[in-house]
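for ur thesis appendix - HTH araC/xylS-type domain-containing protein. copy paste whatever u need, i formatted it the way the template wanted (i think)
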Amino acid sequence: MDQRHPDDHEHVPRPVVGIGNDYPPSFELAEHQHRRGQLLYAASGVVAVSTPQGAWVAPPERAVWIPGGTPHAVRMVGAVQTRSVLVDQAVYPGLARSCRVLGVSPLLRQLLVEAAHVPIEYEEAARDGLVMRLLVAEIERAPLIPLAVPFPRHAALASRCHAFVEQPQAHVTIDQWADALAMNRRRFTRLFRQETGMSFAQWRQQACLSAALPRLAAGEAITTIALDLGYDGPANFSTMFKRALGVSPSRYRP
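the 3d part is after this line
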């Protein structure tokens, strides 16, 4: 498999291009954007994607969909092997126009691995073209995974959200934030949902999960992470984690 950079293939006359790269631990890609949409999948390690609108984390069996034209930065946690595709959304307009984390089925995973080996200018009517069309069909039907931390546009609220993402605390309350912003509880909850699309409790949990996943992938102790996030102990943290993602946090430790 050849190492391929997304920007090198923006104008390849094919609607779908497979790319694959290997990155050392803690490697970071500065903010950039592509004309095409990108499904970014880590075959090993964890990728954390940030945009002006929010943050998305993709552990194993997950991938981040980044629509074309979206400025984004990427941070690798651990040694990361990415297998992803660039998709021309003019050809496939049904693909989402906002960032999201998608579940990666065994079939989609194998198609992503295979796409990285397909020649750049493949025969669209032959087997390689079929692989790429099936891959897009699998992206379209992939389940949405709740691992998003959207940022509001409201300046004061956005400032608090960015600070929280840097240092999440699981038990911070609506009343504490409402008081800090000089709002009553009702106005705050309405504004928060309007700006982020989710309740404060949901957003707080997502921020904690997004902070925990890279640390788990880096091998940190579950107890340390739980206490740092403000949980009473690892049991409470593990219960929340399993309820949200369907597996225990130990699943994501190396």
